[in-house]
Amino acid sequence: MNATASSPDDLTPDEVLDLARHGETHALMAALDAGHSLESATDHGTTLLMLAAFYGNAQLVAALVARGAKLDVVDSHGQTALSGAIFKGEQRVARFLLACGANPELGRPSARETARQCGQERVFQPDPELDAELRSELGHAFH
After folding, report:
1. What ranges do the domains of the chain cover?
2. Based on the number of CB atoms within 10 Å of its own CB, is 7 exposed (0-12), middle (13-18) or buried (19 or more)?
3. What angle do CA 57, 63, 67 make, to 5 degrees?
4. pLDDT tens-digit map of 87-102
């Protein structure tokens, strides 16, 4: 899909979701400014934030969180943005979501259980190196 081919007003709901999947931060922010919902979701309830997190798009995740995206939505598959990021091995995104207050106990399985199952427990441990990477990439968005 070529997001620049349509104006933000003309995007279909599926095209808006694709912007999140592909990490098209500027195009998605323009679509939101044009009136598309921050909580747009697939038929399974997978939100823009979840899609951005699952695909490791840290900049987009930060932009959506800054706009007020709900951190703790659980889709019909039992996943949250946090549990999906952990399952996909996106530790930077997971770390950012935790720093923003995402609840690791939500989901089926929970994000914490997903981390155990996937060998990603590191995301819950202090990690100055990873935190420095996030601060460098996301600046003020990472606390």
Report:
1. 7-138
2. exposed
3. 140
4. 999 999 999 999 999 9
